[in-house]
Fold this sequence. Notes:
By secondary structure, the protein is mainly β. The chain has one domain. The protein has helices at about 1-10, 95-105; strands spanning about 25-30, 35-45, 50-55, 60-65, 75-80, 80-85, 105-115, 120-135, 140-150, 155-165, 170-180, 185-190, 190-195. Strands 12-11-10-9-8-7-6-5-4-3-2-1-13 form a 13-stranded antiparallel beta sheet. It starts with a helix and ends in a 27-residue tail after the last strand.
Amino acid sequence: xxxxVCVLAVAATPVAAFDPPAGCEPKLTIQSRNCLMxxxxxxxxxxxxxxxxxxxxxxxxxxxxxxxxxxxxxxTFRFDPIRTQTMDIPADDPGNLTELFTTMNDTYDFxxxxxxxxxxxxxxxxxxxxxxxxxxxEVLKNTEYAFDVLDESGRVLDQREGRQFxxxxxxxxxxxxxxxxxxPEAVRDSSPVExxxxxxxxxxxxxxxxxCGALMSSYEVAE
Length: 223
């Protein structure tokens, strides 16, 4: 993970491209609305199905997350403020894409901890609506979701709802519409716009391109 931090520190400078660490292969760039972008890669030595996802806004990298084939948040490095979070495994009720695709519903209840052992508990669900959306040639399944973030005392820190997308091909979620449960009128649209593959223009840059400039990203780091 520390090697990734060094790479992303370079990526935060005004250069044209972003390269993953040695022994890793870049796979996909997703450009989204709300001035967000995700670069995805895989690395030698990781378990089958594991992927790394770097989220960028117009100021540079926001986080790097390692997920497994069912999209469990195995490890997350956040940049503002800098901290690392590791998921408690096994989780009480892990997120499970296989269950979601099979039954159209998946609940989860898991904890991530920082370097000091302080935990955050995520409790929620994902639900397939039965509809699909095609974005830049990619077939995405539409979802509804809601989750609470709680501290170790059980105090609710955040409550989020929304509609997003999930790719059965890539086994990842992408952003969509989201809002705070106590302010449903304040909807943030971070839906995907482009899927860029190796060899295509705009693959693995270090900046998002949609809704940037004067508009600052409203993305929050709870997810």
